[in-house]
Amino acid sequence: MNTIELTYHLKDIDAIAASILEHLKSKTILFNGTMGSGKTTFINAMLKAMGSDDLATSPTFSIINEYNIPNDKVYHFDFYRIESLDEAYNFGIEDYLASDHWLFLEWPERIEELLPEDAQNITITSIDDNIRSLKLTIDNKLLTEHNAMTETEILD
Known about the structure:
- The chain has helices at about 15-25, 40-50, 85-90, 95-100; strands at about 1-10, 30, 65-70, 70-80, 100-105, 120-125, 130-140, 150-155.
- Helix 1 packs across helix 2 (about 40-50).
- A hairpin with a 4-residue loop joins strand 6 and strand 7 (about 130-140).
- It is of the alpha/beta class.
């Protein structure tokens, strides 16, 4: 496993999201972090970097939001309220996971047994009101020469 670690100010979130997109080798991204750490805010920045005009909102109550990007879609899940795998099956999670669309999953540990092996992890930690720490975990099986190093960067 390789990890890219970034500490950034919220004013730089768009540049950080664009940078992270360059390192992704899977379209299934697991977002980890405590409530209020900025997962949906970062997803919004990623959508913008992907060319979407949509605004990401937390799908805590709807469980899934759909966004359009050029030539594709992003499905944004929030599994915080999921009590069992049966609930995930009831809304057709297996169809989404089998699709070739982007999947952004918040609280993925609630459906851990269903997650694809090639999913990549992003963990966001709030350091203070305007500073976040982000870790992108890259499975060695997904590495290319382009991203085969660990990067640590601090942006103010």
